[in-house]
Amino acid sequence: MSATKAPELVTHSAPAARQHRVAETISRFRPAVIALLILLIFGGTTIKNSSFDGLSNIQAILSISAVYLLLSVGETMVIVTRNVDLSVGSTLGLSAFAVGEIYNHDPHMTMVVILLAGIGIGAFCGAIIGLITTVARVPSLVVTLAALYIIRGLDNIVGSGVQIEPSVIPHSLVSLGYSTVIGIPWLFVLVVVVALAAGFWMRSFPAGRELYAIGSDPEAAVLAGIPVARRVFTVFVISGALAGLGGVIFLAQQATVDSTAGTGYELVIVTAVVVGGVAIFGGSGSVIGAVLGALLLQVINQALVAAQISAFWDSAIAGAMLLAAISFDRLISFRASRALVATEGVSYVE
Amino acid sequence: MQPDRLETPITAGDATDAHDVGGYLFAAEHVGKSFGAVKAVIDASLRLTAGEAHALVGENGAGKSTLVKMLAGVHEPDTGRLYLEGSAVQLSSPAIARDAGIAVIYQEPTLFPDLDVAENVFMGRMPKRSGGRVDRPLMLDQVNAVMNRLGVRLDPNRLTRGLSIADQQIIEIAKALTLDAKVIVMDEPTAALSSAEVARLFTVIETLRAEGAAVVFISHRLDEVFATCQQVTVMRDGRSVLTSPAAELTSDQLVRTMVGRDIEKRQAVQGVGSGDVVLNVDRLTREGKFVDISFEVRAGEIVGLAGLVGAGRTEIAQSIFGIDRYDAGSVTVSGAPLKKGSPTAAMAAGIGLVPEDRRQHGLVMDESIERNIVLASLKRVRSHGLIATTLSRDFATKWSERLQIKFNRLADPVSTLSGGNQQKVVLAKWLSRQPALLIVDEPTRGIDVGTKSEVHGLIQNLAADGVAVLVISSELPEVLLLADRILVIREGRLVHEFTNAQATEEAVIAAAAGVVAEVAA
What we know:
The structure holds two protein chains of two kinds.
Chain A: E1 8-10, H1 14-28, H2 30-48, H3 54-80, H4 88-105, H5 111-135, H6 140-159, H7 171-178, E2 180-181, E3 184-185, H8 186-204, H9 206-216, H10 218-223, H11 228-254, H12 265-275, H13 287-306, H14 311-343, E4 347-349
Antiparallel strand pairs in A: 1-4, 2-3
Chain B: E1 26-35, E2 38-48, E3 53-57, H1 64-71, E4 79-84, E5 87-89, H2 94-99, E6 102-105, H3 117-122, H4 136-150, H5 165-178, E7 183-187, H6 195-210, E8 214-218, H7 222-228, E9 231-236, E10 239-245, H8 251-259, E11 277-286, E12 290-298, E13 302-306, H9 313-321, E14 328-333, E15 336-337, H10 343-348, E16 351-354, H11 358-362, H12 369-374, E17 382-383, E18 386-387, H13 389-402, H14 419-431, E19 437-441, H15 449-464, E20 468-472, H16 476-482, E21 485-490, E22 493-499, H17 505-513, H18 517-520
Parallel strand pairs in B: 3-8, 3-9, 6-7, 7-8, 13-20, 13-21, 16-19, 19-20
Antiparallel strand pairs in B: 1-2, 1-4, 4-5, 9-10, 11-12, 11-14, 14-15, 17-18, 21-22
Helix pairs in contact in B: 4-5, 13-14
């Protein structure tokens, strides 16, 4: 066929394709847009409100956000595979309570055991959820909704009438909650390291890319030879483990815990992840975006407190941001489908 | 059978089995597969020699797809065995089949829209750098090399969301090529490709053969089978009924073996078109899609729209029917102007549209056959404002009999039917409205030979009954067989009009590809 002249590719209606590119670019820079929003809101609040002390408030926000950021890392991995984990709040509560109970029995327990216990409890919950989801093929929405109630029930049974008193929590753990490294809360540094590691894994490792493939088209993922069940199981274990670690952090920061710890976190986390640009039906989004989304919600929350605006507005704004994020994603896919029509105008001309 | 199927290695069989399959690169010997009570494949054998292109043909529902899925590791055979290079193999997962050197290009592209082209090509087997990271530079190099080989310019960094079906198919082919597979199965690879791309694909198949691979080629287009393949295996009703060198078969013999009966060849219908003008399209323009399209269709006339994929034929039909808007021009139906952008108005004016993609746009796949048939005629099966079960059943029964739809029960989901019968359901839906104008986009895409001629017969009878028909088809023999007049669309313009008597395959191809455009203008 060496005699055949290479056909020339002709594209009609470039404008639609360009629109598509613009939308794609905006969504690629979503983390930067969110980071900018965070700075604007924070800066605005600092300037307008003299009682809002910039530096100590940064520390406070970073400290408070740590747990949310940590959970949003695991949730991102789960949502990217077209699943969802609604059990993270309950798992966090169970882990916090169990670790507190360990201290109740032995206030001198070493930190390593405490961390392993917290992470282990979370990973165990995640493993059971992962097994039911992948082996019994029950939608994760249902499995984790059930897990949310069951684990919360466990919290209540284990924790009925028991209060973990601040006195039993050793100073080593509490100081972990408040110590800083060059002015940045130590826990926040830990969370950032976890987020960067997770983001790097998802972006640059074959198994990480396969998570996106699974969320993008689960059936095609099977045909591509991806061990779908193993990957989905793994992300639920990771999400559970991070929720367990979150329980230890929760205890370190609060120094007390009851059976309601972590209630309602799951919805805040899912909201943060979606606001951060992770598609709710999987396939796209980044850990960095999700973590920034979680931070944005916390900054808004603190700004409202500083401005002495009712907490009602906090939820309302979170809801509005969620709607805006999802509408934006829909708009993108609408543009993409228009671009599809446009690229079908491509033909070969000899 | 081991419990952890994903980890099961390719197991070598006992050597005693090998003697009768020794000379073959790959062999499926008397394999069978059932799904519940349905026997998809009863007894099929397929033997592939290195360096051959082997056609696998048969009507839809003959068991080709199930056989392919056994090669692909998606299904394991219940009976019979598979042999690779003389030893028995157990292909218990797609990954194992792929690692054994078997690549499958599926009819429906199986891509990940959120990932880019390079990732799609290598998904499930990405090359690693030291440290375990994805070796992206290597991926990009290999994808670019394959794209050059295919003569396609496709940016490996582009997301696959929004790519045309043809480009998606190219990525599927690229997957198989980067695998260096020994056995490459192509399930209807040409259905969505333009003729230039098909030509390139055939060149690639030649190269693969020269390199010692075996190519299994599945197609409903028999001319492609004869052009590409040395061997042909015919499947019918779950069995392989014939394997023969392609050169020893005629097209008629092949078709007869596929359907197990003789198909009468229809003569093209000549000279109608003296009826009243039903559809008048005047200087219709849609920015970036088509320009200045004017034509009319008369009662009892079949007009064909021919052209390359992407020339704008489907877009013209969608603008007439009101799915898309148009920027200039007008559409008149039976003398009355048609409101633009309103399928409801188009239906009220007596237009029916059988769309190109019947699964997405023509049918509600999970709904029953009955529901799908009555869907466009709900007013006729109503009683006191509610849908009356008996009226609906009678209506669906009448039309399914008239179109000879083969099904188990009317209540079965339409997704259980073969492609040909699904298309008949779509036709029943519109014919039952007794339209003045029926637009049929790719009436027989992916439909087996037997049903194909039935659909052709239906369309011809429809015209004989005085309905105006507009047929869009990428298969030229079909347009030539059906149409009284052929309009050729090229890059959004109506470049040539042929009467049935003038039209030859060569002339229409030349007009569609732009060779005679100047003469026509």
